[in-house]
Design a protein that fits this description.
By secondary structure, the chain is mainly alpha-helical. The protein is built from eight helices and two strands, in the order αααααααββα. It has one domain: dinb family like domain (Four Helix Bundle (Hemerythrin (Met), subunit A), Up-down Bundle). It is elongated and about 60 Å long. The model has no long low-confidence stretch (mean pLDDT about 90).
C-alpha cells in the first residue's frame, strides 16, 4: 500500500463511521453479537483512543535519535473505559478532529521512500517498518468498519426471515 493510498483511506474513515453510526438507536449501538465481542459503541471508543495514543506516536518512534526505537504496548481496552460515558456524536467529533490533526502531522513529516523503510521494535511482533505501520493504520480502520457492518447485519438478521440463507454473515458456518 502506498503512502498516498493509505492516506486516502485514513482521510475517508471519519465520514464512513459517521454515515454508519449517527442514526443508530441505543439498542443497536449496544448490541453484542457474542459475549467477547465489542459493541458498535465500544468500537468507536477504541478507534478514538487509538487515534490519540497509538498511530502517530508510533510513527514518531521511527524518527527518534537513539537506536532503541521501541513502541510502547497498545492498551486495547483503555478507550472502552475512557469514553464509556460519551455520546456517539462526541466520539465521532473527537475521532474526526484527532484524525485531521494526525493527517496534518503525517503530511508535515514529508515521508520519503527511505523514511518508509525505517525500522522500529514492536513489543510483540519484533522489527516493523514505517510503511507497515501506515498500512496497518489504514487496515485497522477497514477492519473496524467491517466489524461495525457485521454487527449491524447480525443485529437485524432475525428480521430477514427466509432471506437469511442469502447472507453469509447470518449463517452459523460462515460460508460465503
Amino acid at each position: 500500500m502506498t503512502l498516498e493510498i493509505a492516506r486516502g483511506h485514513l482521510e475517508a474513515t471519519p465520514s464512513v463511521l459517521r454515515a454508519l453510526t449517527t442514526t443508530l438507536s441505543a439498542e443497536v449501538l449496544s448490541y453484542r453479537e457474542a459475549p467477547e465481542h465489542w459493541t458498535v459503541f465500544e468500537v468507536l471508543c477504541h478507534l478514538t483512543d487509538t487515534e490519540e495514543h497509538n498511530w502517530l506516536p508510533r510513527l514518531r518512534v521511527f524518527f527518534e535519535a537513539d537506536d532503541d526505537r521501541r513502541f510502547r504496548p497498545m492498551d486495547r481496552e483503555r478507550g472502552r473505559q475512557r469514553y464509556a460515558e460519551w455520546s456517539v456524536d462526541a466520539l465521532l467529533d473527537a475521532f474526526a478532529q484527532r484524525r485531521a490533526e494526525n493527517l496534518t502531522a503525517l503530511d508535515d513529516l514529508r515521508l520519503t521512500s527511505a523514511d518508509l523503510e525505517r525500522q522500529a521494535q514492536h513489543p510483540q511482533l519484533g522489527v516493523v517498518t514505517a510503511a507497515q505501520l501506515l498500512a496497518t493504520w489504514a487496515t485497522h480502520d477497514h477492519a473496524h468498519v467491517a466489524q461495525i457492518s457485521r454487527v449491524l447485519v447480525r443485529c437485524h438478521g432475525d428480521a430477514v426471515g427466509p432471506w437469511r440463507a442469502f447472507f453469509s454473515l447470518l449463517r452459523s458456518d460462515g460460508t460465503p
